[in-house]
Task: inverse folding
């Protein structure tokens, strides 16, 4: 079982490694579903973890239909990731009609090689998942991250199982979204997935002693300035164990 942990900062990457992850997906902006992290963050993570690092290539939140300026930014970000010695990149481009943009995806994949390339959950926003599967294979992706077109993967197990069957080893299908201690056994046992993607999120209090009571969080009134996102290594270990046990049944 291959375990990929999505992380949003340097501490989380180190905690994912401590928990025994095989790979991390390194992003920024969890509130927008993940965007490209800063190059300083990528460099620091590369220096301090030895596991595989896949970097999100997504110039903004919102949809996955990009204009020429955004597409150029994605190409530049891939070039920089190659210079920083990461192991893979993660992206997806969708046409306005809900199909995979094979032409531009292939262009980015060709540019990214020899890095590994994952199509992220842009896949779940396509109108025909089986056509999107074939399009991803034709474009050259190595794997697809999918929730089975639902908010959480446990709701999409039937589609994920069918995607794995139809892929027939031509591309890896990796369930993600809402994968945790309560759902991972059902997801793995029902789909036969060999890879899983989850966050194992935890939060810790800020070390700040002085706190401006008038501002609880930049751009937020939820106190997020003093609530720092990280990864719980023990959750990583537990979810992996549950997944491996389910796979062995």
Result:
């Amino acid at each position: 079982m291959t375990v990929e942990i999505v992380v949003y900062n340097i501490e989380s990457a180190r905690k994912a490694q401590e928990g025994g992850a095989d790979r991390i997906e390194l992003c920024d902006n969890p509130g927008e579903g993940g965007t490209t992290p800063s190059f300083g963050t990528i460099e620091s993570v590369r220096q301090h973890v030895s596991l595989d690092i896949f970097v999100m290539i997504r110039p903004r939140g919102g949809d996955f239909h990009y204009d020429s300026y955004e597409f150029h930014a994605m190409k530049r970000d891939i070039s920089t990731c190659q210079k920083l010695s990461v192991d893979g990149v993660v992206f997806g481009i969708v046409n306005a009609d809900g199909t995979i943009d094979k032409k531009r995806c292939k262009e980015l994949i060709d540019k990214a090689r020899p890095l590994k390339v994952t199509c992220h959950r842009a896949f779940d926003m396509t109108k025909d998942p089986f056509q999107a599967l074939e399009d991803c294979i034709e474009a050259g992706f190595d794997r697809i991250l999918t929730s089975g077109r639902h908010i959480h993967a446990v709701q999409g197990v039937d589609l994920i199982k069918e995607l794995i069957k139809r892929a027939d080893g031509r591309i890896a299908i990796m369930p993600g979204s809402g994968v945790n201690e309560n759902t991972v056994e059902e997801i793995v046992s029902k789909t036969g997935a060999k890879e899983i993607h989850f966050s194992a999120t935890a939060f810790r209090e800020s070390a700040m002693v002085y706190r401006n009571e008038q501002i609880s969080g930049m751009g937020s009134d939820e106190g997020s300035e003093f609530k720092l996102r990280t990864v719980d290594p023990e959750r990583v270990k537990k979810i992996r164990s549950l997944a491996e046990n389910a796979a062995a049944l």
About this structure: Residues 2-205+233-248 form a domain with the TIM Barrel fold (CATH 3.20.20.380).
